[in-house]
Amino acid sequence: MTALRSGSATDVGLVRTVNQDQLLAASPLFAVADGMGGHAAGEVASLTAIEALKAAFDKDRSPAGLVAAAEEANRAVWDRGQTDLELRGMGTTLVAVALVESDGEERLTVISVGDSRVYLLRQGELEQLTTDHSLVQELVDEGQLSEAEADIHPHRHVLTRALGVDQDVTVDEIQILPVRGDRYLLCSDGLPRELSDNQIASVLRRLEQPGEAAKALIAEARARGGNDNITAVVVDVVDDDDQAKAASDALASDTGLVIAREGEKGEDDVEERRGGRVRRAGRTVRNKPPKTRSFTLRVAGFMTALAVLLALAVVAIAWYARGSYFVGVADSQLVIYKGRPGGLLWFQPTVAERTKVSTSAVLASRLSDLHGGKEEATLAKARTYVRNLQNEAQAHEVLSPPSTAPPTTAPPPTTATPPTASSPPAP
After folding, report:
1. How confident is the model at residue 414 (pLDDT cuts 50, 70, 90)?
2. What is the value of pTM for the model shown?
3. Distances (CA, A) of 274 to 126, 187, 236, 303, 307
4. Average pLDDT, integer, range 74-92
5. How confident is the model at residue 302 (pLDDT cuts 50, 70, 90)?
6. Would you list the DSSP string of 263-324?
7. Which end of the chain has fewer beta carbons closer than 10 Å to its terminal beta carbon, N or C?
8. What is the Cα–Cα distance from 235 to 3, expressed in whole angstroms?
9. Residue 355: how many CB atoms within 10 A of its CB?
10. Can you tell me the mean pLDDT for 284-302?
11. Closest by alpha carbon to 80, among 163, 182, 181, 175?
12. Structural contact between residues 89 and 67, judged by C-beta atoms closer than 8 angstroms
């Protein structure tokens, strides 16, 4: 039987105050979810997804069962958001790796929704197995952006797919034969945001124990900024029951590398086997329709138009959510944030500038506005608002100086002298 060992770590990072990531390391199922939403909604979304995924997978530990479990997790997050107004609009990413049995042999099934990632380190070489479901990744795929431009694009965190934002979701699926010595990394986007693939690979190569590798990755990401929650789950294949050797022997007697299953001619059912790895052509998405040219052309046109409209809607929401500033309070200091007070959907405000002005330096009557978030159109106007608060407080002190006049002492009471009666004139 295939044997796995794992280690994991998670951290809130250096900027955020709440960890909205959740992880699961319960062999044979491993998962990472990165929640999004205002207040505690992101934390609720990721926890709901992980719990629903595990419960559903325990009932059906097959490749199809894992995909169905992710779909069940999507419905659980969606239903929770619909029944609680404070959680409406929440969502979460999800990646998972599970050891399953398919056609009489054990395989590792990888699923993904969103921009959390799964990597494979094989013979020292690191490969990203999942594709980010993000706006910039689509632009890269279309050739409109380079990888370097995508890394610094202002909308690089706008997702095109996530659990809980709709009643249904498409789940990407990959199946891989387990190979002794392979190392898998599941992580939230807070890790690759700070570390390059080469830096990630260096840590994974250097440390033998998966738990130590996970902790080291978190520490490296914190040291390089820690701008988001960071989560890593490292899974090692320590025994593959000689499945990889059997697959290699079978390939040695094969005349070709591409194999079509008997009775199945569809392009999506072609499998490519190299080095013990099994993957459907491209990155597979379940339940694709059969390819009929006229139907495909119409659907392609419709889907392209729909994708453009959705992308424009996402960009518009992102612009509105991140297109302004507000002045708030953190640790009794005035702070300028970029975004909307309380956030909008999964777009949370971020710190644009920490001022040196304390709440004691402004009028008490202004504090309610500051605690609610005083919105301004630009960073310059937000700075001007802070200066005006200081000037206002200083002017108030000048106009209403404290009384320093010495106390007056009342004069002592005077005693009236009664008039003396005049003597009558002598006769």
Report:
1. low
2. 0.59
3. 16, 26, 20, 33, 34
4. 94
5. confident
6. T---GGGEEEEETTEEEESSSEETTPPP--HHHHHHHHHHHHHHHHHHHHHHHHHHHHHHS-
7. C
8. 10
9. 17
10. 47
11. 163
12. no
Distance between CA atoms of residues 325 and 128, nearest Å = 36
- CA 80, distance to chain mean position in Å, is 19
Q: How far is C-alpha 270 from the geometric centre of its chain's CA atoms? A: 34
- Report pLDDT for 410: 52
* Residue type for position 183: R
Between β-strands 270-274 and 117-122, what pairing exists: parallel, antiparallel or unpaired?
Answer: unpaired
Please count the residues of the chain.
427
State yes or no: cis peptide before 28, omega within 30 of 0. Answer: yes
Both structure tokens of 132: 């980010």
Q: Report the pLDDT value the prediction gives residue 218, as an integer from 0 to 100.
A: 98
Q: Are the beta carbons of 126 and 201 closer than 8 angstroms?
A: yes
CB distance 64 to 36 below 8 Å: no
- Asked if residue 305 has pLDDT above 80, the reply is yes
Query: Two tokens at 199?
Result: 């830096």
Residue 214, classed as helix, strand or coil, is helix
Highest-scoring range by mean pLDDT, 5-19, 30-44, 152-166: 5-19
Structure tokens given for 189 = 């986007």
The string of pLDDT tens digits covering residues 241-266 is: 766 666 555 544 443 333 333 333 33
Strands across the sheet containing 277-280? 258-260, 270-274, 277-280
d(CA 359, CA 371): 10
What is the rounded CA–CA span in Å between residue 36 and residue 93?
A: 8
Residue 187 and residue 115 in contact, taking contact as beta carbons nearer than 8 Å:
no
Helices (H) and strands (E) counted in the chain, each on its own, are 10, 19
- Measured CA to CA, the distance from residue 311 to residue 336 in angstroms comes to 29
Assess whether pLDDT exceeds 60 at residue 271. Answer: no
Q: Which helix (H) or strand (E) holds 10?
A: strand 3-11
Residues in contact with 209: Cβ distance below 8 Å, sequence separation at least 6, in sequence order: 7
Average pLDDT over residues 171-197: 96
- Write down the mean pLDDT value for the chain: 81
User: What's phi and psi for 383, nearest 5 deg?
Assistant: -65, -40
